[in-house]
Amino acid sequence: MIQTGRGMNRRHFMQVLGLAAAANWLQQTWAGDDRKKQEHHPPLSAAERKKMEEEVFEHLNNSKVELVPASEAVHDRGCCIDGRNCSCSACTPGGDIGDIVLKVATHEQLSGRNTARSAGEILDGMIRNGKRVIYMHTDIHAMERVAKRMGLSVTEVKYLTENPGGRQEELLTILTENANIGCAHLRFMASKGTGAEKGESGNEQYPGARPELVKELIKEMYRRKWKGDKHIVIDPLDEKHPDHKERAVVVVRTKGPVTANTLIPRVQPNVNGHQVFVLHPDLESYSQEQFAGFAHDVTGLPAVPTAVFSNHLRDNRQTYLTHSARQLVNGKPIVEVTYNQTSGKFERLLRR
Hints:
By secondary structure, the protein is an alpha/beta fold. It has a domain of 219 residues. The chain is 47% helix and 13% strand. It has 14 helices and 9 strands. The strands form 3 sheets. The chain has a 5-stranded mixed β-sheet with strand order 6-7-4-8-9. It has a two-stranded antiparallel ribbon with strand order 1-5. Strands 2-3 form a two-stranded parallel sheet. Strand 8 and strand 9 form a beta hairpin. Helix 6 crosses helix 13. It is globular and about 55 Å long.
């Protein structure tokens, strides 16, 4: 169903994903902060919300959708949920690097210690277990900051990121400074994560996420890109859409349990010139269960029962997502739909 007549606040966002307890916690934690956030994300009028919701539903049932099996959607994402992305997507926050950090962090938490494996070994483990593309993105604003930091033009920095020559290590250090990480979700994890060995106290917003692992994975992505590794995609994003202007959140649910052969609708985030965030929570549940089965091979940490791993991973994913949502999507309407495998159409999901 399309949820009409209301904007997306933090409590509503959590309820849509079925996270009542987290919604209550967030409502208390963030009370009184709405006015400040509205300055950055002005709310849509009731008429604007209704128009956007109808445009999204119309868009979903037009041709700008790709259907792929869940196994392919998980192993070949090639995107982030970033609304500036112009390709059809069934993505995860932070692209594949954000997803890998989340999954490794969860295994480290459950094991009580960090993996001894390098960023390269972790990526190798993902590829060994079926990952065909490992994706992350930057953006033009990050390139501008790097250019200023290095005293170069943006054109020169773009050339260096493709052909670093003898400046590889210098460039990697600068590219992984917090301000210069072009994906907001990765930037938040790099600056606000704490790691599994620092406990649950303090300003922990991304439980278990180690900033050093985020940065080492980003560095490894560039090193492999420079060596011509075909598994690696670092997307500069379309400079025609440099800013976040997402006006809605699309939550795509699948009728029935997701299996390897379930067709997943990959949706283009650009709707009639407006950006939207697209979430596939049922696909993420499938992805979590799959990773739980081979996590040991990726991290080298002791195996954990699949149900325990999946539940903890689900909780961490929800926490990570809501903290990023706090920065990016407050005040936006939510469009909830299911994809009917029989009719091949999107349907409005009726709310209780």
